[in-house]
Structure formats: C-alpha cells, structure tokens
Amino acid sequence: MFKHLRENIQSVFDRDPAARNTLEVLTAYPGLHALMMHRFNHWLWQHGLKWIARVLSHFSRWMTGIEIHPGAQIGRRFFIDHGMGVVIGETTVIGDDCTLYHGVTLGGTSWTAGKRHPTLGNDVVVGAGAKILGPINIGDDSRVGSNAVVLKDVPAGATVVGIPARIISSTPDEVNARREAMAKKLGFDAYGATQDMPDPIVQSINKMLDHMHHVDERIGQMGERLNTMGGEEIPPLEPCTLDELEDGSGEPGDDDTTTSG
C-alpha cells in the first residue's frame, strides 16, 4: 500500500510542475485523495461490501468533486489533474501511468448489465472535458484531445480530437524539427505551433514557417552561386528576431541586422 502511495506521489511530481513538496501533494491534491479512497472502496467492493463501498465513494465525491465507482479497475501511477467533474463508471478499466484532466467522463451508452464502460490502455492521456463512452478500447500511448467525444476504438499511439472524435494524422518528426528550428531562428516560442492539431491559426503558423524555410533555402543557394562567380563574398542572410522588430533595431537600414543585395 505504501509502495503504491509513493508511486502515486511521484507521478504527481512527474506530471505537474506546480507540485512543490510531498506535504503539499498529500494535502492539496484531490486527485490523489480520490484515488486513495477508491483503492479502499474497490477492496470493499471486491469483498462483497458493496453498499458501504458505494456510500464511501459518495463521500469521496463530495470531498473531491471526483466520482469513481468502486467497481472500476484502475492501474498503477494513475493521475487526475485538477479533477473537478471527473466521472469514472463501474465497468471502466484503466491501465498503468494514465492521466485524466478535469471534466473527463468515462461513461456508458447502455442500460444493460455487463461491460458498458471504456477500457484505457497504458500511458493514455485524456484532455479536459473529453467524453469516452461505451465499451470501447483506447490503445496504449494514445491521446484524447480536450472536449473530444470518443465513441469508437482508438488504436495504440493515436491522437483523436473532435465531436465525434477522429484520428488526426501525425506530422513527421523531421518536419516538426524543421519548423521548431525556424521558429527559434526568428526568436519566438513555437510551443503548440508544431503540433498537428486542427486549429486554423496553428495551421497558418506552420505554413508560414514552411514558406520561410523554403525562402531561406533559396536565398542561401543564390548566395552560394553568386559567391562562386567571384567578387565580394555575400554573407549569409540573418533574419532579425521579433524582439529586434519590437524595439526598432531590426528595421531596414540598420548595419548590424541587414545585408545588402
């Protein structure tokens, strides 16, 4: 029991940079409280003490804002961040190292007895407000976007978004690396801009980064060819950063940030 508690505390530190010390995690993280109470309630449920397990789970819900049916099976190092509004149904099965954010529902779509709630594999992350409904399987290492409604199986390693949820294609690592390098060269933080998400602003930024990359390559090729023709060597083009543009030091005409030609 204490080994699992240590694992759960460590999982908080691993996944929440706001966690500062063990005392804070033990006293101020409702996700941890809900999980600890569920472990006890699930033990009661398995030993036939179903009524008292339901009563105690109701108390846990009142204390934490997280509703976990005592019949749910939850693996090790499970982490609920924030937690308010999380609902986990009776026949839910959750693997190891999974993460849920607030407002997540792991619910059923049928009133018939038997398996009616989802099964999550290992290392699954479910974003805030997502709904996973029915006896479906969410594969290992998969990601469910915020506010998605998942009604079908999700293969391992996939990312799903939308209503109803659909799998989005993953961008090759080399493309992401190229975009990140161009963003750093221009001097802005590309966090979120290199992810293959169906956001028109993100897609526009990615297209701009790709275009600037190609323009940069073409200018570099032109400079190399001109240098081979003789004459004064043309230095490589160095774009000014956003900070330089804001303070005016990167405006045309500045000797230290622009090149002729």
Written account of the structure:
The protein is α/β, with parallel strands linked by helices. The protein folds into 2 domains: 2-167, UDP N-Acetylglucosamine Acyltransferase, domain 1, CATH 2.160.10; 173-243, no CATH class. The protein is 39% helix and 13% strand. It has 7 helices and 15 strands. It has a 6-stranded mixed beta sheet with strand order 3-6-9-12-14-15. Strand 14 and strand 15 form a beta hairpin. Helix 3 (30-46) runs antiparallel to helix 4 (50-64) and helix 5 (173-186) packs across helix 6 (200-228). The protein is elongated.
Q: Kindly provide the radius of gyration, computed on alpha-carbon positions and rounded to a whole number of angstroms.
A: 26 Å
Please give the order of strands in the largest beta sheet: 3-6-9-12-14-15
How many strands, which pairing sense, and closed or not: the largest β-sheet? 6 strands, mixed
> For the terminal residues, how far apart are their CA atoms?
71 Å
What is the level 1 CATH name of the largest domain?
Mainly Beta
Name the helicity range: 25-40%
CATH topology of the largest domain, anyone? UDP N-Acetylglucosamine Acyltransferase, domain 1
Structural class: alpha/beta
Instruction: Tell me the β content.
Output: 5-15%
User: What sort of overall outline do the alpha carbons produce when their principal axes are compared?
Assistant: elongated
CATH architecture of the largest domain: 3 Solenoid
Order of helical and strand elements? HHHHEEEEEEEEEEEEEEEHHH
Mean pLDDT: 81
CATH superfamily of the largest domain: Hexapeptide repeat proteins
